[in-house]
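quick q for whoever's on today - can somebody do inverse folding on this one?? i tried earlier but teh output was garbage lol. tokens:
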């Protein structure tokens, strides 16, 4: 089975108070385990003081694994929209 690399753009939910992109990024980094290798997770400026989190993760090319990872990110308090920027086989 091959490996797949995904890059996500994660937006903080603007309607949730007292949450920052840095806090969300720290919690996404904590999702790293034997299945999901979170290689990059950093906050980047967007516009007007807004930030987003860019996440680069490598995982097995198994059925439903990317959906589970996205669900794990969505379960983090303050996480808004999640967009796949790139996906590729390694």
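ok took a stab at it. sequence:
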């Amino acid at each position: 089975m091959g490996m797949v690399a995904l890059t996500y753009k994660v937006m903080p939910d603007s309607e949730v108070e007292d949450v920052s992109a840095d806090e969300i990024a720290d919690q996404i980094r904590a999702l790293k385990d034997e299945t999901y290798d979170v290689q990059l997770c950093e906050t980047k400026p967007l516009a007007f003081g807004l930030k987003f989190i860019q996440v680069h993760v490598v995982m097995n090319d198994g059925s439903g694994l990317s959906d589970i990872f996205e669900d794990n990110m969505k379960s983090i308090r303050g996480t808004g929209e999640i967009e796949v920027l790139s996906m590729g086989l390694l």
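fwiw Residues 3-89 form a domain with the Alpha-Beta Plaits fold (CATH 3.30.70.60). also The longest strand covers residues 79-89. so keep that in mind when u check it
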